[in-house]
Design goal:
The complex is a heterodimer of chains A (301) and B (424). Chain A has 301 residues and is an alpha/beta fold. Chain A is built from eight helices and ten strands. In chain A, the strands form two sheets. Chain A has a six-stranded mixed sheet, sandwiched between helices. In chain A, strand 2, helix 3 and strand 3 form a beta-alpha-beta unit. The termini of chain A are far apart. The N and C termini of chain B lie far apart (48 Å). Helix content of chain B is 19%, strand content 35%. In chain B, strands 7, 8, 9, 11, 12, 13, 15 and 16 form an eight-stranded antiparallel sheet that branches. In chain B, strands 2-3-1-4-5-6 form a six-stranded mixed sheet, with helices on both faces. Bound molecules: guanosine-5'-triphosphate and magnesium ion (MG). Magnesium ion binds next to helix 2 of chain B. The site of magnesium ion has 6 residues of chain B, from helix 2.
Amino acid sequence: MHNYNLTHLEQLESEAIFILRETAAQFERPGLLFSGGKDSIVMAHLAAKAFSPAKIPFPFVHVDTGHNFPETIAFRDQFVKDYGVNLIIGLVQDSIDQGTAVEESGPNASRNALQSVTLLETIEKEGFDACLGGGRRDEEKARAKERFFSHRDAFGQWDPKNQRPELWNLFNGRKAPGENFRIFPLSNWTEMDVWQYAKIENIELPNLYFSHSREVVDRNGSLLAVSEFVSPRENESPIEEVVRFRTIGDATCTGAVKSNASSIEEVINEVAASRVTERGSRADDRRSEAAMEDRKKQGYF
Amino acid sequence: MTEQTNYLDMDLLRFTTAGSVDDGKSTLIGRLFHDTKAIFEDQLEAIEKSSKQRGDKNINLALLTDGLRAEREQGITIDVAYRYFATPKRKFIIADTPGHIQYTRNMVTGASTANLALILVDARNGVVEQTRRHTFIADLLGIKHVAVCINKMDLVDYSEDAYEKVLRQYTDFASRLENVTDLTFIPISALKGDNVVDRSESMPWYKGPPLLYHLENVYVGSDSNHVDSRFPVQWVIRPHSDEHHDFRGFSGRVSGGVFKTGDEVTILPSGFSTKISKILKGEKEIEEAFHPLSVTMLLEDEIDVSRGDMIVKPNNQPKISQDLDAFICWFSGTKKLTKGSKFIFRHTTKEAQVIVSEIRHKVDVNSLRKQEDAECFDMNDIGRISLRVSQPVFHDTYRRNRNTGSFILVDPFTNETLAAGMLR
Ligand SMILES: Nc1nc2c(ncn2[C@@H]2O[C@H](COP(=O)(O)OP(=O)(O)OP(=O)(O)O)[C@@H](O)[C@H]2O)c(=O)[nH]1
Ligand SMILES: [Mg+2]
């Protein structure tokens, strides 16, 4: 007799593919938010599987703060070429130039929050009615509360107190004109699941995720990479460290961690032993207790 | 390397918390994480900091799952939090749901995908209406395993009598349920940690295992149906490329049974029969597909098949009807359901119009008695209705198959999800 059991990774894979296809079926113009980070890479890989041998039936969207690691952009461009999809770029700089977003000032200024403005403008300009995101519920306490199909009103806002019930595998993507959805196929994945999956599927990831030597400054406990966007302040002295990134976002707020893990296997061992969450190194979440929830309410990913 | 192979082979248990407001659900989940060292240092630090700021005496472990601002303000859970953790024995997906009656819909959301329910009861108050409501909903949803955690034992001097009293109350109620077959009772203190991960020293009279041991070891057979083959078509793949010029694949998730290459299949509603020529999982060809795999099927003959159709076996077909008999949980606080109400009906990959042809009865969650004279459904009402759908629905009873036996009702004007339904 046969064993009709799936491993939990196979279950997660099937669930994510189901959500991706449901998105294609229920919406007229979805887009896949592609940041070049590991979650969006895994999501893109799953999208390729979901529609194979056809092409992924929606464009990729990158909301670009302009403060990227050069490796991220190179990886993004190659990736999009390999998968043969369209890439739509929303530039935070454009929002700033138009005056719809105002650059933060002060010592901890970051363009991270401005991404929401640019994202909403890109959604409106391109007419997207659904945006697929690589967010996972294990990342953060407000995300832990979010549905797979997360409804946004005409202002792009999330109303966490009034989410639609989401039962079984039945997803209600109905909406009024002007409203849209954020959809998270990786909701039930953990950081460990993403790495284990990348390993068994041989998914190529940017080398920022693996240990390398780099000049950093220690700012409020985050190791920020010294770059054209982050320069050492008076009281800071840059140091050379062997580091890797657990998440990749805006270079001004994504901290590196000291690490010697240079292969997927080593990263997996490191993740298994880690005592802090991956967002523990992100300055954007540490701004206040409900930082993520507040950003999400305003239309953040 | 054995550790990683284990990780990949690990068995998955999905459970939900349930029970009345303030009975300690979120505290229990926090305790479970805390005592298994599954809380990360930065999370713990953040929780300690906000506990202190709020003036809580102890560290408030409920803050691990109560992540929304409004929840922290009021000290209650509003929406489900999903949490993940693994021990060397099992991997767990946890839904921590709200006990507040106003948010029953979110409890149903969390419970709809669970195999086991942890029902918390405050040892001082015993079984209350919301305990019964949640128990009844868990039963309706087909959850077979229930672990009743009689909580706050520290507030009743860890008394065996207090425990026994609640146990009898609960057993009495549960004897009227249909689906729950495995009922376990554990006296705990979520606040102090008694019998959560470690055995309590204050309750030597309790001979059973602590909660975590139970969760790690309880045998939960697969809830998949491997008998009735059902494949609701979700999406049609047509590459429109020279290389795959004639390719036409039907994608979806197997909702029951097994499909193999070469199997004879019938397409509903057209009734045409053909054979499966190929099954793809991603770009890889596989020999057979079963629940809950997402696959793409290729058929031998050119037949018209589209989203909402269902691929089945000729000798084992689902029920096909426009008239349905169902149990529903009504969620909306602003809309009511009455005879003649019209909604959008969502079932598998199909969407149709539906009209309520009859209200059969509502159920009083305290006594589980039928109220035959009910005229409308209000927020949190549960009961049985008849529906007429604008087109035939290919379905099974919910008891036989959760995937082809469940549906939701959606408001055609506001697009809100109004009710969850289980077909009879
Ligand atoms: N003394 C004592 N207090 C407890 C225990 N468990 C929980 N509490 C307290 O009971 C209160 C409510 O606990 P929660 O965990 O928020 O209750 P809940 O069931 O999650 O509540 P909702 O999610 O809003 O339904 C808090 O003040 C807890 O500290 C216990 O075992 N003993
Ligand atoms: Mg709670």
